[in-house]
User: Which sequence fits this backbone?
């Protein structure tokens, strides 16, 4: 067995390990091992193979890994609260200066306050413009 075979076997094993891990770091090391194999095929001395391995691994860490992270990492879904932003609803209970109102959305009631402190009567149409903890901030339409 020649040395380039060892580099290729190491790369294949590292690719397999990457399947069971996350973060895409092991795949960069596997690509570095392929760089070592190429250096071996170009008749580089052992220190040259190690140098090729290190350089290709670093290049992969700074180029391939960020690309893989952007492509395959999970995109965060908006929370239930965030999905309510911009929705137009009716007030169930009025909003007063020191009184929180209530809005009903899909059968759930949420506490609501006015964005500018104005009083809003029950039944008025409002738009959800923000949140403070689990209290919705609404604007009268």
Assistant:
């Amino acid at each position: 067995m020649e040395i380039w075979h060892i580099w290729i076997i190491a790369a294949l094993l590292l690719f397999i390990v990457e399947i069971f891990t996350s973060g895409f770091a092991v795949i960069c090391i596997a690509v570095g091992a392929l760089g070592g194999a190429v250096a071996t095929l170009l008749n580089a001395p052992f220190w040259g193979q190690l140098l090729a391995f290190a350089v290709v691994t670093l290049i992969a860490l700074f180029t391939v890994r960020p690309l893989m992270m952007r492509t395959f990492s999970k995109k965060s879904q908006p929370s239930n609260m965030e999905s309510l932003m911009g929705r137009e609803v009716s007030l169930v209970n009025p909003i007063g200066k020191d009184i929180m109102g209530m809005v009903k959305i899909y059968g759930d009631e949420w506490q609501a306050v006015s964005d500018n402190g104005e009083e809003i009567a029950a039944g008025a149409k409002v738009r959800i413009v923000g949140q403070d903890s689990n209290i919705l901030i609404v604007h009268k339409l």
Remarks:
- The chain has four helices and five strands.
